[in-house]
Design a protein that fits this description.
It is built from one helix and ten strands. By secondary structure, the chain is mainly beta.
Length: 133
């Protein structure tokens, strides 16, 4: 599980749908889309998280893509199993783990210190904890 301490920058609502932007480490903006929203306001500090299986890694990807969260990263460590690989990535927001199949890993031809893009759908980001209650 990946998690980050973040400050809520904006909250937009339409009916029961919420879109929230977060500032992480003063350098990265994360977006979240969801139906349920805890009692939070702009400026609140929260812990956001996402599953490692929700982190997509891209190499030589198109310039326009529909993921709300796109972050530059460097491959720090690769742990390869028989069917899955764990890729530890360094970003401005902190370390992020991506879990992918060995087949996907082979297609990407990843090596330590490679520069990649990390993509995360807004619907995969969640607020796990409100820190300033």
């Amino acid at each position: 599980m990946n998690s980050f301490v973040a400050k809520i920058k904006s909250i937009k609502n339409e009916q029961s749908l919420h879109v929230i932007s977060f500032d992480v480490a003063g350098k990265t903006t994360f977006w979240m889309m969801g139906l349920e929203l805890p009692n939070v306001d702009i400026g609140d500090m929260v812990k956001i998280g996402l599953k490692s299986t929700s982190v997509t890694v891209g190499v030589n990807v198109p310039q326009t893509i529909s993921f709300s969260n796109e972050i530059d990263a460097v491959v720090e460590n690769i742990t390869r199993g028989k069917i899955l690989c764990s890729i530890l990535l360094h970003t401005h927001a902190g370390s992020v783990e991506s879990i992918m199949t060995v087949g996907a890993f082979k297609r990407l031809n990843l090596k330590e210190n490679d520069r990649v893009k990390v993509y995360i759908r807004a619907s995969e980001v969640a607020i796990y904890e409100v820190l300033n209650d």
